[in-house]
Design brief:
By secondary structure, the protein is α/β, with parallel strands linked by helices. It has 10 helices and 13 strands. The structure holds oxa(dethia)-CoA.
């Protein structure tokens, strides 16, 4: 028997305000056509003034706890993936902890930009496997609208705000790839690629929050190669092949990247969860948002094998395999 993390609940939240491509085209030199053709994005959500990352994360967390039939006091760990924390410190996770009414255990943030959810899942999964936590909440929550340069058409059309969360519970199981839970996580980074995707500010450098800067083509070039490597590692570690995958739940940055990944895996379109058209790129929130949508509409069912992958600033990248 081995200890494994089972996903017993998931939740998500999107701010109410919708911003369409046509609305954006009124303020920057872009078009609905260009954005759709190059990215697949039709619209994104934007948080209201005063609506913070922790507010989004809290709503997703409550929904995930409800589905898991757990109370906040049952949790002993919160890991929140975000690159847009409410404040420089304390961690956004501790604000969510306080709002939930969880007074014990530990809460902290993980920062791996668009790979943040995979990183946070890996951290929580390892706490559970080692017996240091029993019930963990993993959140991906972002308000990227706050770090965008709204005059830069090459970046401001690509991102959106949102949050998703999952509850992990430690269970003892046979430990093979048929038993439900997180089968494996694989994390990577290569800091030499800083300049391709970063925020030009921060407490220690400029004393300002800064704006997102990206060499889109450079990121695109690395994305598919890196994610294919991470997926290969995940499948090999579990003695599985692409044909075993029931659902690809990819990071939602660009429909062209998602389609390229599906082609490499020989997965038909209807086995890939796509939300980028309505959410745009919500960074660490994109995978749990997509996952929850597919769980709620019952595409993902008990026993399905789910592959998650992401790549983002750093560069960071990684994969996770979960038996639902
Ligand atoms: O989640 C983190 C990871 N991030 C990603 O995975 C993003 C990866 N990169 C991408 O998704 C794509 O590179 C972008 C969507 C960012 C850009 O698409 P692209 O096909 O690589 O376009 P490009 O950057 O090569 O730009 C093509 C043209 C340029 O004009 P010229 O030089 O050909 O005259 C740009 O100036 O499109 C122009 N352009 C735009 N035109 C209209 C750039 N942004 C826009 C825009 N509207 N919003």
């Amino acid at each position: 028997m081995v200890r494994r993390s089972q996903v017993t609940g998931c939740g998500s939240y999107l701010p109410a305000r919708v911003m369409t491509n046509a609305q954006l085209a009124k303020t920057v030199d872009t078009s609905d056509d260009w954005i759709r053709q190059r990215t697949g994005i039709r619209e994104r959500r934007v948080a209201e003034d005063g609506e913070l990352t922790s507010d989004l994360g809290l709503k997703a967390a409550r929904e995930a706890l409800d589905m898991a039939r757990l109370e906040a006091v049952d949790l002993d760990l919160i890991v929140c993936a975000t690159s847009t924390p409410d404040e420089t410190f304390p961690a956004t996770a501790t604000r969510i902890q306080a709002e939930l009414g969880m007074t014990g255990g530990a809460a902290f943030d993980v920062q791996a930009v668009c790979t943040g959810f995979i990183y946070a899942l890996a951290v929580a999964d390892n706490f559970i496997r080692l017996g240091q936590a029993r019930n963990a909440l993993v959140i991906g929550a972002e308000t990227f609208s706050r770090i965008l340069d709204w005059t830069d058409r090459s970046t401001c059309v690509l991102f959106g705000d949102g949050a998703g969360a999952v509850v992990l519970e430690g269970v003892d199981c046979a430990g093979n790839s048929e038993a439900s839970g997180v089968l494996s996580t694989h994390l990577y980074s290569d800091g030499r690629h800083h300049d391709a995707l970063y925020v030009d500010g921060g407490p220690s450098s400029t004393g300002t929050v800064g704006h997102l800067r990206m060499e889109g083509r450079e990121v695109f070039r690395h994305a598919v190669v890196r994610m294919v490597e991470a997926i290969g590692a995940a499948l090999e570690a579990n003695g599985l092949t692409p044909s075993d995958i029931d659902w690809l739940v990819p990071h939602q940055a660009n429909l062209r990247i998602i389609e390229a990944m599906a082609r490499r895996l020989n997965l038909p379109e209807d086995r890939v969860i796509v939300t980028v058209d309505r959410h745009a790129n919500t960074s660490a929130a994109s995978i749990p948002l997509a996952l929850c949508e597919a769980v709620r509409d019952q595409r993902i069912r008990s026993g399905d094998l789910i592959l998650m992958e992401a790549m983002g600033g750093g560069f960071t990248w990684g994969s996770a395999l979960v038996r639902w």
